[in-house]
């Protein structure tokens, strides 16, 4: 992946030479260094799904089949990531794909990508709010069952689960509200703990794992691998948090592109490791029956419940890193949409002291407060509903990448993806392939009515807002023309 040497800063965003403590041209503080960026993206991709869903994946495809599916999924996401890497280096502004699509496809294309990705981010944040009490229920058996409230899809929702999930949502939103630097430090510490837990699982597989336990290596055939692949967009979403926070990164733009690709490779390696080590510990039936399959696998590898609890704490760290990153990404994307007048200006207000999009953070935090009310069934609903929207955003970004390569070959690209058109076409076709997996009749189709209701309600609201947007042609000045036209219309009212 050859890339061009760092070039003078473009007018699209303030450069990395800006003082870290001073607001850039768009008002954000540029404080994130190399370690912060890598921790942000990797931690976003390594959430809690690997603790909860491992048994389902191995049951569907076998331990080796699930690992292969994650390799395939990692290749797909890496190709998409390469398109992002070039675009973020060329247009390093808060909002990421919003600006890429606006320049390449115009206002409607930008809204489609942004609105889809916002639901993807919100779904992950809400997923974590539900997963926290599930985690504590493993560590403190019986504690999360107190105070039965109601039943959702045959699952009993308790007052304890709701209280813990709501409290966690409030705390995480608060940490992000007071600034990117506290959120970045928190992210780095949590990722280090997560890596320590992963190292312990690898060591346990070497000591107590068995190749015989992994049999059969492949089950379910192609359909089984599709079950795993359909979760890939949800589990790998996170590298795109780098473009969302680009205005707060103090690195040469070329390095930002490289770190994005590295983060995807690290996440793919992590998921493959989890599938193989869990498969070496317990059979598919035992993993499927477990509430937290990876934790039970860790306990079996070390023959110690305490080690299972250690992995759960590591999973909790992963949960918090993912939660933290998507609060950052989602709020910056809503901020960018507000700056372009696509959503109410309320979302685009930066806190005067903390320099964070406080209102956008409060909005996402409020949605995450609602998720624990639905209990564990919401976990699966959010994976699929969020995943299909993430893939839609990836498709729009791949199209934007190809359009800009053709229309603006001379655009400054500090990071230039080798074989760009081929990579863009591959990313586009493979993303379409992932999208097909969610359609009716496919093995991993969205579930009616729960998942379709989430997706449908979101897009009914989105289409209503999109219909009000003026038809602004793409171009480097598309945002300025869009703002001017909206203000002209508003002025007439």
Automatic annotation (TrEMBL):
Cell compartments where the protein resides: Cell membrane
Query: Which segments cross the bilayer?
Result: 37-58, 64-89, 110-132, 159-178, 190-211, 217-239, 259-282, 310-335, 356-374, 380-404, 416-439, 445-465
Q: Name one Pfam family in it.
A: AA_permease_2
- Region described as Disordered: spans on this chain: 1-21
This protein's record includes keyword Transmembrane helix: yes
Q: What is this protein called?
A: APC family permease
Where primarily located?
Answer: membrane
Q: Which UniProt keywords apply?
A: Cell membrane, Membrane, Transmembrane, Transmembrane helix
Q: What is the lineage of its organism?
A: Bacteria, Bacillati, Actinomycetota, Actinomycetes, Streptosporangiales
Q: How does it sit in the membrane?
A: Multi-pass membrane protein
